[in-house]
Design the sequence.
């Protein structure tokens, strides 16, 4: 591949990672402002490519969806989020094509994936859901197969595989609407967005040659990888807390919950992952005991995550990765303060949205730490 193409790929990967972070942030804003069902159809909004604007269009929208009255201040948020996600999808497609370039079968797989995904959306809007699902499954499988068989280093394969992730992420966005913000789907959608960001960030880090010339930091790879797993588990708990509307289940008390160290809880009910189809989960369906259980689990997870990452920060700094360690520590403290602020301030939208964004930044700092422990090749080839 020509140096010019490699340079373009590096810049595009960095841009896509930054854009993915913005999409994650805006998605959190949409979810936390209770706008997730503000467009009751998908991918259109009340049948419009954008959203109803004129009085006649609004009247038609309310007539078509009598159970979901049109709200201008919410609908634009949901549809803009879809536009942003679609734009990110185009970036990821470009990255996948460049990463697979001059590998004929891989390029064909990427192009076919994009065609199948687009056809699946069109067929879905026409009500042909079965055929749409088959095409969407193929659209996901093809980039994964191409990535697995691509004879290039890891970052290139990740660039191709990310296309499959973002197509599945689009399906999760659709299911978020059609399954009426079911918690397991909403949480999966959050994790899918973060996974897209993480994959793009990792590829960008490697393509920009973040690493070391030897194996001096090899012993840190395991602890950093564990830190990433611990953080992802905590983010999952946070997503489950948000999607079940349990963020204020303990009121504005911290560290106590409803004035007690251990109030009435129902962990069994709070962690039922699937409750059937047809239930509208907007606003939550759990009683206070179940929501309190979720909130307490999230707080315990936060304590475990803080202790482990604080230890990891210290170890990284002592091993010579002082800047990375300090970055993790600073973002970690900011995240904890935002979490406490969410409770004490009654979940204000800016603080709650920032809490999601800083979680993504914390994930990035850990990915950067992992990249710093990886050995760079002796040549100047892109990784």
Sequence:
């Amino acid at each position: 591949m020509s140096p010019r193409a490699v340079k373009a790929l590096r810049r595009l990967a960095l841009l896509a990672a930054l854009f993915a972070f913005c999409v994650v942030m805006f998605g959190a804003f949409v979810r936390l402002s209770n706008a997730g069902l503000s467009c009751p159809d998908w991918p259109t909004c009340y049948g419009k490519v954008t959203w109803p604007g004129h009085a006649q269009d609004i009247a038609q929208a309310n007539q078509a969806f009598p159970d979901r009255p049109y709200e201008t201040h919410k609908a634009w948020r949901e549809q803009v989020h879809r536009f942003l996600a679609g734009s990110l999808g185009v970036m990821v497609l470009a990255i996948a094509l460049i990463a697979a370039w001059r590998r004929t079968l891989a390029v064909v797989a990427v192009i076919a994936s994009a065609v199948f995904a687009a056809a699946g959306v069109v067929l879905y809007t026409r009500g042909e859901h079965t055929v749409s699902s088959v095409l969407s499954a193929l659209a996901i499988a093809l980039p994964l197969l191409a990535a697995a068989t691509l004879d290039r280093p890891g970052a290139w394969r990740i660039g191709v595989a990310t296309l499959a992730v973002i197509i599945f992420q689009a399906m999760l966005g659709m299911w978020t609407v059609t399954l009426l913000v079911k918690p397991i789907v909403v949480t999966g959608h959050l994790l899918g967005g973060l996974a897209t960001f993480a994959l793009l960030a990792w590829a960008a880090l490697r393509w920009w040659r973040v690493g070391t010339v030897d194996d001096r930091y090899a012993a840190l790879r395991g602890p950093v990888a564990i830190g990433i797993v611990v953080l992802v588990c905590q983010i999952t708990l946070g997503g489950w807390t948000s999607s079940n509307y349990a963020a204020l289940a303990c009121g504005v008390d911290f560290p106590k919950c409803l004035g007690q160290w251990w109030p009435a809880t129902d962990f069994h009910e709070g962690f039922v992952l699937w409750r059937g189809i047809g239930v509208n989960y907007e606003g939550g369906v759990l009683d206070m005991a179940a929501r309190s259980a979720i909130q307490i689990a999230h707080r315990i997870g936060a304590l475990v995550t803080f202790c482990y990452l604080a230890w990891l920060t210290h170890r990284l700094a002592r091993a010579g990765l002082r800047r990375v360690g300090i970055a993790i520590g600073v973002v970690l403290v900011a995240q904890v303060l935002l979490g406490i602020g969410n409770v004490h301030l009654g979940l204000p939208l800016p603080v709650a949205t920032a809490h999601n964004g800083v979680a993504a930044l914390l994930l990035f700092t850990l990915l950067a730490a992992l990249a710093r422990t990886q050995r760079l090749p002796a040549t100047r080839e892109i990784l």
The two ends are 12 Å apart (CA to CA). The first helix runs from residue 3 to 32.
